[in-house]
Amino acid sequence: MSGLVSALLTAPASRVVFTGQAPVTAGQIRATAADLAPRLAGREPLFLHTVSAALFTAALLAAAVARRRLALPAHVQGGYLAEVGGTDAVLLDDTALSLSSATDAPPGSLKDAAEDVDLIFFTSGSTGAPKRIERRLSQLETESRALQATFGGETGPVQATVSHQHIYGLIYRIVWPVMAGRPSADIAAEYWEQLEGRLGQAVTLISSPAHLTRLPPVMDLSSQAPGLVFSSGQLLPTPAALACAAVFGRPVTEVLGSTETGGVAWRRQTGPDEPWTPFSVVTVGQDAAGGLTVITPYLDGVDPFPMGDRVEPLHDGRFRLLGRADRMEKIDGKRVSLTRVEEALAALPLIAEAAALTLPDRQGSLGAVVELTPTGQATLREKGAFRFGRLLRAALADRLEPIERPKHWRFVARMPVDAQGKRRISDLRARFAADPPRVPPYEVVSREGDTARLKVSLPADLIYFQGHFPEEAILPGISQVHMAVLIGEQTLDFVPASAELNRVKFKDIVRPGEVLDLTLTADRERGRLTFQWLRANGNEASAGVIG
């Protein structure tokens, strides 16, 4: 396959490169790049962040013409841009860019396009601060050719749930499909429901554990299962992998790698502890501590690169992962393995998933963010957060020393991860930055446009039950209104225009330990949020309009 720039320059003008509300052709990409390239001359630093893959690709081609390197931030919030040196940068985003209506670029306007472009990615380092990683487009193209050699016969048009701002999404959604001549979705889906009618046996889905561990209960995925599903960014838990295989009729293809190394190995889980197969162009080895090292054509130099994972080599060239080797922290002068703490927590029957971390704002003490099993959730409701944390510390006593047992706990409905399914230490630490959130645990059952349906758990230690009433706790009506607003902000990205209440009725008593159905609908034009709380017996607890 020719490189990305060559593929874009030589493709027929009518070839569809991206699909969506309207197809985007190679000619439109070239015309957009030709319009943009003169505006990029001499402008540094140049940051590129778009939701649209088509606009991203046109800007990348324009950068090749202008011979400018591109920094690719994960998002464009002000504080984050300041951390990555983008405060005074020229930012190319969806508002600054627009697709040309022309069918192709003027002759000769792209003749000076370079075949390679310098790219800068930002990943979460071990301290939580963004880490700058420099790569070249040609290295991503080399990886795309290796992927084509391995999976090319199985691939088809691309749909995705991941961003192209990260190297995994950029390669699998843009570089590889464009080079191979396959159309790709312009906009990634945020919710499974947005993929309704877009999947099927001919489609390749680029996803991550962030979505694959949350298959929608109300969407029939088996009837429109994609022919190939990729996952990367974090390990896909075996129960989730087997659930996906049952729904899709075939296992998910997981890719192991990093921003520095690219993809180094792959597997398809059909049972516990499935080994990894290195890509044919990658040489794997071990360092003195048993950690995985790789030599890949995607990196400069010939020295083995340490991946930070302990491995068990197998006789057939494959390997098994044994956990991270580099997550050691000093707590009260003693070295503690965060991996060991997480493994001990995950082994408890009350815990589904755990993340251990140090808390600089609390004298470096050890904390844990924990996602509970249904039994664990019931125990938390019964005992309250403080007593439940003490119970967990006691349960760890036969495996961990006192210094290894977390002192601070946060219990969450879902482990917080980014769009790639990765835990960010900054997000985890934010859970401890203030008092526990006043939003109860909830699960999004479905979302259709501006309407979300959820199941909301009401643990006994929920702050709204405190003092109302001392003899028998019930949930105040105004708290039901308040929680609807908070949950609406998180799930619908919407806040009512005012606190005015209309047609609000409180019909039934809600007690600690209940699980309620909540339906929220945002009227963005009028600034109103409609809510309805239903108890498990079907009785309406409350309903009304806010705003």
Task: Kindly describe this structure.
With 547 residues, this protein is an alpha/beta fold. The longest helix is centred in the last third of the chain and has 16 residues, at 477-492. The protein has a six-stranded mixed beta sheet with strand order 8-10-11-12-13-14. It has a six-stranded antiparallel beta sheet with strand order 24-25-27-28-29-26, with helices on one face. Helix 7 links the parallel strand 10 (204-207) and strand 11. The radius of gyration is 25 Å and the shape is globular. The model has no long low-confidence stretch (mean pLDDT 89). It has four domains: 1-136, Rossmann fold (3-Layer(aba) Sandwich); 189-323, 3-Layer(aba) Sandwich (Rossmann fold); 328-430, ANL, C-terminal domain (GMP Synthetase, Chain A, domain 3, 2-Layer Sandwich); 442-546, Thiol Ester Dehydrase, Chain A (Roll). The chain contains 13 helices and 29 strands.
> Percentage of helical residues?
10-25%
CATH top level assignment of the largest domain:
Alpha Beta
Strand content: 25-35%
Mean pLDDT: 89
The biggest sheet, with number of strands, parallel, antiparallel or mixed sense and barrel status, is: 6 strands, mixed
What's the number of domains? 4
**Number of beta-strand segments:** 29
- Termini separation comes to 56 Å
Compute the CA-based radius of gyration. 25 Å
CATH structural fold name of the largest domain: Rossmann fold
